[in-house]
Design a protein that fits this description.
The complex is a heterodimer. In chain A, strands 1-9-8-3-4 form a 5-stranded mixed sheet, with no helix packed on it. Chain A contains no helices and 9 strands. Chain A is mainly beta. Chain B is mainly beta. Chain B has 1 helix and 11 strands; from the N terminus they run βββββββββαββ. In chain B, strands 2, 4, 5, 6, 9, 10 and 11 form a 7-stranded mixed sheet that branches. Chain B has a 4-stranded antiparallel sheet with strand order 1-3-8-7, with no helix packed on it. The termini of chain B are far apart. Classes of the chains: A mainly beta, B mainly beta. The interface between A and B is medium-sized, with 24 and 25 residues.
Chain lengths: ~110, ~120
């Protein structure tokens, strides 16, 4: 079972920042927060992951609260191509528990 | 850099036939994961393999499904005597081993095989 909760859907205007929230109140100390997205029927695409510190890459930023019970994925300038289902996943680093367990995700719709 | 390659992209089988789905991981990756996505549903974990070993098969149906990842060649997901309920998209993901795995490297997914059972 997924260990995260996300809103079902949200939308944002093209060019604006999209802030996608995620709750993971039962996260363990060695578990990472991962974000993936799935555009239409393509394979899931890795976006970003983090443990404690905020992270940024060319796609997005990940803000993790100090208590690690929630996080926010930020797409700084959303485009129409960012319309997708976004999955927030808590992952154990090693062993048999290192698989990703997908929940329902949040459907982001970017409007022109 | 080639990503995770899955073939075929589309596969049509009649009920009772066998389906073989192939997955070539990214170069240097020795961990493979298989997922299934039924129409209009989420991604469900099936099996996690390392070279020549099954690590976690907790998501595999007990009958008709098997997976392998031999020392040489791609990983194979095999479905025997397919039924209409097996129609789905099957995704494979890979991740590296060794030191990079300790740093929690992400899984990278292929674009899937869409199986249709008629």
């Amino acid at each position: 079972d997924a260990k995260t909760t996300q809103p079902t859907s949200m939308d944002c205007a093209e060019g604006r920042a999209a802030n996608l929230p995620c709750n993971h109140s039962t996260i363990s100390g060695n578990e990472y927060v991962y974000w993936y997205r799935q555009i239409h029927s393509q394979g899931p695409q890795y976006i970003i992951h983090g443990l404690k510190n905020n992270e940024t890459n060319e796609m997005a930023s990940l803000i993790i609260t100090e208590d690690r019970k929630s996080s926010t994925l930020i797409l700084p300038h959303a485009t129409l191509r960012d319309t997708a289902v976004y999955y927030c996943i808590v992952r154990s680093p090693t062993g048999a528990n290192s698989k990703l367990t997908f929940g329902k995700g949040i459907t982001l719709s970017v409007r022109p | 850099n080639a990503g995770v390659m899955q073939n075929p992209r589309h596969l049509v089988r009649r009920r009772g036939q066998e389906a073989r789905l192939r997955c070539s991981p990214m170069k240097g990756h020795s961990h493979v994961y298989w997922y299934r996505q039924l129409p209009e549903e989420g991604l469900k974990f099936m099996v996690y393999l390392q070279k020549e070993n099954i690590i976690d098969e907790s998501g595999m149906p007990k009958e008709r499904f098997s997976a392998e990842f031999p020392k040489e060649g791609p990983s194979i997901l095999r479905i025997q005597q397919v039924v209409r309920g097996d129609s789905a998209a099957y995704f494979c993901a890979s991740s590296p081993s060794g030191r990079s795995a300790i740093n929690n490297s992400p899984l990278h997914f292929g674009n899937g095989t869409r199986l249709t059972v008629t």
